[in-house]
Amino acid sequence: MMKAAVVYGKDDIRIEMTPKPSAGEGDLVVKVRSCGICATDVKILLGNGLPKDLPTILGHEVAGEIAEIGQGVDGFTAGQRVAVYPIAVCGECEFCRRDNHNLCLKEFGLSHGIDGGFAEYVRIPYQIVKAGGVVIIPDHLSFEEAAMAEPLSCCLAAARSGPVGPGCTVAIIGAGPMGLLHLKVAKQAGAKVIVADLLEQRLNQAKEMGADFTINTSHEDFVQSARQLTGGLGADMVIASLGIPQIMQDYLPAVKNGGTFNIFGGPPAGQSMTVDPRWLHYGEIKITGTFASTPQDFQRAVELIASGEIAVKDMISHRFSLDNLLEAVEKVKNREMIRGVLSI
Q1: Which of 106, 190, 200, 212 is deepest in the core (most CB within 10 A)?
Q2: Enoyl reductase (ER) domain: which residues (predicted)?
Q3: What mean pLDDT do residues 283-310 have?
Q4: Cα distance between residue 299 and residue 294, in whole Å
């Protein structure tokens, strides 16, 4: 048996003993040492996108130690320290063959079809193992930093969709945890970065993490300010690190001609936005979306964190145990922390 945070329904999460998973053929079982607490987990707890099969265990940002090795698995030994890519992919469909594993036609994953990492142990299915999603981490890298590889990998995936590098200006809408990681990715790539948010505290955090400019949208016009900061041209890439279609629509004109607008934050179902096709046509504007990441993005994220090229320790503002996980949920709901991790 093991201790886990088990979700039974909306606002119903219980800390209880549950059967410990075992490794089937090709699988691994990981002893969870750290698991990031994502806003998506909290949205699910609040009833937005509850899994069909309940009860279940959430948590998809996992780092820990190999506890059990299934038959046929090579390259791992018990006790090895690892970070885990959370999406199980078939490796055979059209999207997997193009290395767009996050769009796999048969994808499922931790806390998305199978139990996740808010527990003492988690089973890693053979599809994740086969895709290279279990990455060995060096001894100097803490488990809580390694757990940040999953959200960082999503930001690396977004950066691939547009111009992010020397000579480019990237504007990020939203200075929450993911917005701050976008900031780190863009700065590491050599870009100038503008960060916008309603909360001055978050903008101050962005400045501390390297933002070149900040815009407080509670009293500043984002589009006008972004254009003023870019010589009237607009940003090479704008990343909407929030899921509000009206804001996306209003802030689209902050993109320069030939630039990219990336929809990163997941918008709610049933809401739409209006775009002038003449502007897209004559300005050669590209609108893209980013969902999750690929195993290659994840491996790169681990490398960047382990090498120190991207620091993530300053992102971790709160630490929790399984017993006080509900406190973490409240802090996320009230926007009282940058990023929380569960330590086991």
Answers
A1: 212
A2: 9-342
A3: 97
A4: 9
Q: How many angstroms separate the first and last alpha carbons of the chain?
A: 15
User: Residue 146's pLDDT is what?
Assistant: 98
Residue 213 φ/ψ, nearest 5 degrees = -145, 150
**Domain assignments of the chain as residue spans, ordered by start:** 2-153+293-343, 162-289
Amino acid at position 252, single letter: L
Mean pLDDT of 173-199: 97
**Using CA of residue 238, residue 266, residue 318, residue 307, what is the dihedral sign?**
negative
Predicted TM-score of the model (pTM): 0.96
Considering the segment(s) 2-153+293-343 as one domain, its CATH architecture is: Alpha-Beta Complex (3.90)
The yes-or-no verdict on residue 306 having pLDDT over 80 is yes
Domain 162-289 has CATH 3.40.50.720: yes
Strands 61-69 and 121-124: unpaired
d(CA 274, CA 134): 41
Degrees to nearest 5, angle at CA 198 with 195 and 200: 80
- On the CB side of 307, how many CA atoms lie within 13 Å of its CA? 9
Cβ contact 186:159 at 8 Å: yes
State the pLDDT at residue 36: 95
Tokens standing for 23? 């490794």
**How would you list the strands of the sheet with 213-216, edge to edge?**
213-216, 192-197, 169-173, 235-240, 255-263, 286-289
Q: Write the Ramachandran bin of 144: left for phi over 0, alpha for psi from -120 to 50, otherwise beta.
A: alpha
CA-based nearest residue to 128, from 100, 98, 101, 155: 101
Bridge partners of residue 56, in order along the sequence: 7
Which of the pair, 107 or 334, is modelled with greater confidence?
107
- Burial class (CB within 10 angstroms; exposed 0-12, middle 13-18, buried 19+) of 309: exposed
